[in-house]
Amino acid sequence: MKQVIWSAAMLSMFSAMLSASVVFAQAETPRIDQRQANQERRIDQGIASGQLNEREATRLNNRQDHINNLEDKAKSDGVVTKKERARIRHAQDRTSRHIARQKHDRQQR
């Protein structure tokens, strides 16, 4: 009987520690996420309207993947520092400029 109680107590303690670590490991970045969604939408709109050809869209999507990797790496320790946010913001600024340039150049599909 003692063994059953002891194992139940250990199991509940382990699950509490696991849930606390999962909550701690998820850093919140709503602005970064929203901006990523906006940029992906701009790329999709450019493809649909013919402003972006396939090669341009692929390059821009690769840039988006790079930013997602930067964000994942920054979140890996559970805290996104100001320096990490600045680096991500800079990459997003560059990507935004590239999207605008590619959408407004003379190339067609």
- Low-confidence blocks of residues: none
Structural class, by secondary structure, is mainly alpha
Number of helices: 4
Q: What sort of overall outline do the alpha carbons produce when their principal axes are compared? A: elongated
Oligomer: single chain
Mean pLDDT: 86
For the biggest sheet, the summary is: none
Share in helix:
over 70%
User: Could you tell me the radius of gyration in angstroms?
Assistant: 21 Å
The number of distinct β-strands equals 0
Q: Termini separation (Å)?
A: 73 Å
Write down the secondary-structure element order.
Answer: HHHH
Beta-strand percentage range: under 5%
Topology:
Blueprint: H1 2-25, H2 30-49, H3 54-75, H4 82-103
How would you characterize this protein structure?
The chain has a domain at 29-103. 81% of the residues lie in helices and 0% in strands. The protein has 4 helices and no strands. The N and C termini lie far apart (73 Å).
Question: Which key phrases capture this entry?
Answer:
signal, mainly alpha, 4 helices
Overview in brief:
The protein is an all-alpha fold and 109 residues long. It contains four helices and no strands.
